[in-house]
Amino acid sequence: MPHITLQSYPKGLSQAELKTFADELTVLASERLNTPAEYITIDFQELDKQAFKAEVWDKKIAPSRETLLRQPQYEL
Questions:
Q1: Which pLDDT band holds residue 54 (cuts at 50, 70, 90)?
Q2: Could you state a single Gene Ontology molecular function term (predicted)?
Q3: Reported pTM
Q4: CB distance 29 to 4 below 8 Å
Q5: How far, in Å, CA of 31 to CA of 54, rounded?
Q6: Catalytic residues, which ones?
Q7: How confident is the model at residue 26 (pLDDT cuts 50, 70, 90)?
């Protein structure tokens, strides 16, 4: 039962664009993880620059950089 959390600077996506993104991400995750789509949940959080650095970069990315599935190509 995969749960995907995405945290990003604001992207200004409409509800329709968010739904399309979630639907496409669900299909990809379902196919790659061999999991029925109904078991996949997605949380999309938009954070301002300060909140992203404090909540995501400092607490999640920087301390676990070596174990991330994809490492950042940027620094904050």
A1: very high
A2: isomerase activity
A3: 0.86
A4: yes
A5: 33
A6: 2
A7: very high
Q: Distance between CA atoms of 34 and 62, rounded to whole angstroms?
A: 30
Look up tokens 């789509």; give the residue: 37
Question: Token pair for residue 41?
Answer: 């949940």
Q: Return the pLDDT at 61.
A: 97
Amino acid sitting at position 55: E
- pLDDT value of residue 35: 98
Domains of the chain in sequence order? 3-48 (3.30.429.10)
Three-state SS sequence of the chain:
CCEEEEEECCCCCCHHHHHHHHHHHHHHHHHHHCCCHHHCEEEEEECCHHHHHHHHHHHHHHHHHHHCCCCCCCCC
